[in-house]
Structure formats: structure tokens, C-alpha cells
Write a structure and sequence with these properties.
With 113 residues, the protein is α+β, with helices and mostly antiparallel strands. The chain has helices spanning 3-29, 55-61, 96-105, 107-112, and strands spanning 35-39, 50-54, 67-70, 80-85, 90-94.
């Protein structure tokens, strides 16, 4: 895998892990319809934007280790596809080796192992 693609996937995975903590805290409140602020899981290491989404929407994204929740327009079309769009957020899916690596870094896959 290209070193740049590896770095991009690792950055996205880092924000995904932070959002897993946000989700765990929010889940204890038990309100799937409440809107929470998650971190944008884009590949930009300087991005500190937040994404407003429900727990149900976040869980839908997390069904695949290749998918990430990002702010609109934060996608990198050379390595990922936008698979869902709303006004507040987009869902991107990593392709090829970067997608396989993103799955490898998925904390939920580690928890299942």
C-alpha cells in the first residue's frame, strides 16, 4: 500500500476511535434519536470540525470498517467513495488496500477477535 494512503487511513481510524468513545458515552443515555457531536473522520490531520448525527446514524456508518463519517466535501475521491450524503454529514467508504487497512484498524473488529 502507498505510504500516503496508509497515513490517511490511520488518521481516519484515529478519529473513528475517538468517536467510539463519544458513542459509548452517548449510548449510556439511551436516546438513539438525540443528535450528538462526533468528530469529522476525514483524512485531513488538521481537521477539527464536528459532525452532528444521531446514534442510529453513527451505528449505520459503523456497520462497515471501511466507512467513515465526515463533513460534506471532506472526501478524497482518489481513495474513497461517498456512499451517503446528508446536509450535515457524508459517509465515505475506503477502496482497495486502504479499505482493507481501515478494516484492520477498526476497533470493533479488534473487540470481536
Amino acid at each position: 500500500m502507498d505510504p500516503r494512503d496508509r497515513r490517511l487511513a490511520e488518521n481516519e481510524a484515529l478519529f473513528r476511535e475517538v468517536n467510539e468513545r463519544v458513542e459509548a458515552i452517548a449510548a449510556r443515555q439511551g436516546d438513539d434519536d438525540h443528535v450528538y457531536e462526533f468528530y469529522c473522520e476525514c483524512a485531513n490531520t488538521d481537521c477539527t470540525m464536528h459532525v452532528r448525527a444521531t446514534l442510529a446514524a453513527y451505528e449505520s456508518v459503523r456497520a462497515s470498517g471501511r466507512r467513515f463519517l465526515i463533513k460534506p466535501e471532506h472526501a478524497l475521491p482518489e481513495v474513497e467513495d461517498v456512499v451517503e450524503r446528508t446536509d450535515e454529514w457524508w459517509v465515505i467508504e475506503k477502496r482497495g488496500d486502504a479499505g482493507a487497512y481501515a478494516e484492520h484498524l477498526d476497533p470493533r473488529d479488534r473487540d470481536r477477535a
